[in-house]
Design brief:
about 280 residues
Length: about 280
């Protein structure tokens, strides 16, 4: 009678087994939450301070932000046909002391001389579905729209102990902002819109910024025209260059230049989404 072979571990050598056992015991003694693998080509914003942060605001908080440089897809948009869409993939995390909500507003500002303009993001469900299949086919990081992300808590995670030793990794919440590129027929009609409510991007931009509103509860008030106060809120400004012409829209044309934190006026059509004015604490359960 032939005996069935006993299953063997791939690491059947005693030395390796002993090493793994030691690592397991070490992990038991010093537990550290595992970090999920980060996606490729992600830029982290390493600090959260703005030069204009009020010194007398001990309650001021700012979420952490990571992102990929803008990318393009082609997708069928209902009622508008086959379109080129630029998108900004991003993640937010929270080390502010309590759970927060992120009510984002993204503003793409073209600063190319003679072509200046500001363009708000637009939620495009068909584009988001395609982006999910490209950026996260395994569903490791569920990707939210600029609306759905407002309904989830950004959980607080204390990452370091008082001695500066890491004790946990961030919990990332992932989202995407999208913009449609205008067709030649749409450009004349688009130019008649007020600059702050345009949604279609021109095809001939080069230098541009993307402002991210909603990451902080910071604000300042200044005197405007005729003495009327103007409220500016804390925003992240991401700076990019695009090398190319209007005949080709491609992700490899984009160069990330840098970032800064600024205080700026939030887009005036914020109310169209029913979103809060800026970031806020998560509601009590």
């Amino acid at each position: 009678m032939v005996k069935a072979a006993r299953p063997r571990w791939p690491w059947h050598h005693a030395g390796l087994a002993g090493m793994l056992c030691g690592l397991a015991l070490w992990g038991t003694a010093q537990p550290l939450p595992l970090d999920l693998p980060r996606p490729f080509n992600v830029h982290d914003v390493p600090d959260r301070k703005a030069p204009e942060d009020p010194p007398d605001r001990p309650d001021l908080w700012t979420l952490d932000f990571s992102f990929k440089a803008p990318r393009t897809i082609e997708v069928d948009v209902p009622g508008r046909g086959r379109r080129i869409v630029w998108y900004l993939w991003y993640q937010v995390s929270n080390d502010t002391g309590q759970a927060r909500r992120f009510s984002p507003r993204f503003l793409w500002v073209v600063v190319t001389p003679g072509r200046e303009g500001a363009y708000t993001d637009e939620v495009l469900p068909t584009a988001v579905e395609k982006i999910r299949s490209l950026e996260d086919p395994q569903g490791v990081y569920p990707i939210h729209t600029s609306i759905s992300i407002t309904t989830v808590d950004i959980p607080h995670v204390q990452q370091f102990d008082p001695q500066g030793k890491r004790i946990a990794f961030p919990e990332y919440v992932t989202g995407v902002a999208t913009w449609i590129v205008a067709t030649p027929e749409e450009v004349p009609r688009m130019l008649k819109q007020p600059q702050h409510v345009r949604s279609y991007l021109p095809s001939d931009f080069t230098d541009f910024y993307i402002y991210v509103f909603g990451l902080s509860n910071g604000f300042v008030q200044i005197d405007g025209l005729e003495g009327k106060p103007i409220t500016k809120v804390k925003a992240l400004r991401l700076k990019f260059k695009r090398r190319g012409d209007e005949f080709r829209q491609n992700s490899d044309q984009i160069e990330y230049v840098g970032y800064d934190w600024v205080y700026a006026e939030q887009p005036q059509n914020q109310e169209s989404r029913g979103l809060p004015f800026a970031g806020q604490a998560a509601p009590n359960p």
